[in-house]
Input
Amino acid sequence: MTEKYDPKVYQALGITEQDLEPATAEEKASNDQMRPSLSYWKDAFRRFRRNKLAIVMSILLLTIILLAIFGPILSPYTYKGQSADVRQGPSLAHPLGTDKLGRDIFVRLMYGTRISLLVGFVTMILVCLIGITYGAIAAYVGGLCDNLMMRFVDLMMTIPSMLIIILLSVVLRDPLKALIENPSFTALASLGSGLISIFIVLALFNWLGMARSVRGALLMNRTQEYVLASEAMGAKSKWVVVKHLLPNSIGVIIISATGVVPSAIMTESFLSFVGLGVSAPVPSLGSMANDALNGISSYPQNMIYPAVMISLIILCFNVLGDSLRDALDPRMRK
Amino acid sequence: MRKLLAILMVAVLALSTCVAFAEEAADENVVTIAMQTSPNLDPQWNAGATGAWLLGVMYEGLYDVTATGFELGGAERVDISDDATVWTFYLRQDAKWSDGQPVTANDYVYSLRRLVNPEISTTYMLDYGQYLKNGAAIANGEMAVEELGVTAIDDYTLEIQLENPCTYFDSILTYSAFFPMREDMVVEDGTGNWAWDAEKSVTNGPMKMISCDEDQEIVMVKNEYFHSADEIALDRLVVRLIDDTNTTLQLLETGEVDLINTYPSEETERLQEAGLYHASPALSTNFLLLQCENEPTNNALVRQALSYAIDRDFLCNVLFLGTKTPATTYVGGGFPGSSADTDFRTEGGDLISYDPERAQELMAEAGYPGGEGFPVLTCSYSNNSADYTTMFEYLQAQWEEILGITVVLEPLEVASMTELRDAGDFEITPQAWGADYMDASNMLSIFVTGNFINGGRYSNEEYDALYTQSLATVDQAERMELLHQAEAILMEDMGTIPLYHSNNVALYSDDVLENVAIGSDGKPILTDIIHK
Output
């Protein structure tokens, strides 16, 4: 069932009608689809898997997380259990030795890592909540509101955050202590007022970058035809934002979020180092480093353990964030 | 232009090196020490140990501190009335200020009037003024400053009348607050900062200050007008002011500094092995102040329970590596007892101990069996002391384990800690008191009702009465008996929890310095040190 074409076409091409053969079903199919269809996530994972460094770092991070969770549970010691075996070097009983109060350093290091990771993840969640809401509102409402909201972000960015963080963590201590002592908040008591104030101040100063990236991504997607179509069909703003804009900006959000974690961990370590973080005897990597400073020439290993741990965690998250950006948003690749 | 600038800079650098070389003549005996920043150099405003150390070489009082005790310094002889209330000093006629003017009795009169003047002095200083006749009344504003019982009979005769008989007034006089001062140099601005000005700092001691940058370095040279200048071994003293103990230790180990007295405590063992660590017992006690006005520490049973739960031997020998002596009661060893050759401590015996079971019983007796119903106990301390951090983490574990209570630690900035302590706004806080003079009464004086160190507001009428009575008692044995009784009451009430007695530490290498003697006030006698 060959179709008839104008003979002039054959003539121009220099062929006759007999030269043409109908395509087989197979050929037709291959024309339809050059490669198997991949979902966004599958595609991203494929690209991620090709990055060897990223895989190594993911495994390392996973190991650290597992150790931080199960290390203290499985060890016969607790982070605050003191003994008369003080200032011992590494041994079978104490893999990393004991500190000046006879506490097992391995357990303390794992517990400190747990605190650091907790700070990283809780801050990330809080930052996502604040940043996404803020950025989405600014981008979708637009106009004067957007302008005002983004100028406020600019304003906040000019404040030297470390100073304010130190000030706030001092100021927040007492109100939080009162809050914790209130019997209806007993769940918070186990965290301690220092840690809660760290969550709050870190979230307050880390959402700015997130808000900016989310707004940028949303503005870009807003001009796409499918959004116009959706709006033309009478979709409400909430529907457009939640069903179209945010899911299509998920790459940007994930990348910003992984960036927040290492910076939060670093800030927490710094605050604990200067004595504003978790309250003793709860260890954090920063406070362990601070404790070690008093005997740095005699017991340098006590400084090395937390320092190496902080570096490893931050390195893992930075490499992961980088590879995620490459995987989730290939257009951003240089 | 650039070349010119470079040449100029090289020239300046070369010049400054020359100047530096020129300053340090070949056989000068120069000793460099390091201490914490901003020592107050006003003899009466200073309340810190580092400031007192420097003041001791800059000024000379009526008595000098020596390695074994003290001896007459600025005075040649003294007449003491039989009831020990009138002390007449005949001053040295060859004593001169660093600008060449003679030191007269009027300089002492000015200084002691300044000590009790309520418009100038701090509460700390007023405490010393109370020994002088009418001193307390003047401090309270009830009398004019001129009515103080200190008079210059002539230029070289000074008469000091005391409010109460005081046989140990000579040891009190070694304290810097009783040094003479120059009225024409002092600037009253309520801080004592005038003393950092090398021009204003005219002193009568073996050394005089020639330059002072209160955040960096103080330089002193021998005072050529000093009456015994020939006997002073030290030619030049350089004081580096550095807060960070790791830095000072490093400077000592690289030889940039010859002697330091603070160091990171965890390095003790290494320093002992290296032969740098030299310690001698200090006349001081480190103790806990407890809030005696509010629940739950206003209950003597609770305070006793807290004390019984502390293993001071473990704390001092294991955690502090033997650098402290465990307290067996409040007043430590080294104070004279009822006669010249007895010790106050040996006479008094041990009044506190470690007894976890007794601690639990007392806790139950106080109404908190097993710690039940006991509110959260907060310990506030300054975050710059590694010793306190270690100690409170230990106390927290002990109290939680033995008494079953919850203890929260609150490390604070030094400034907010001081504020909190002065306001009495704490539950438990550490405090140390080093004796200003060698008498047990000085240690016990701070728990008298209303004393400014007594931030926990401990108050016991019987204690106050015994202490006041001891002030009016001349007979040494009788006076010591009263003080022993007072101490027993303090320990029965546990108005304070004594912890340990610290050591005076001097870190130096025997290869670098020789003839380093520790004075009876616990500080190395700087003027005798010889740099090899």
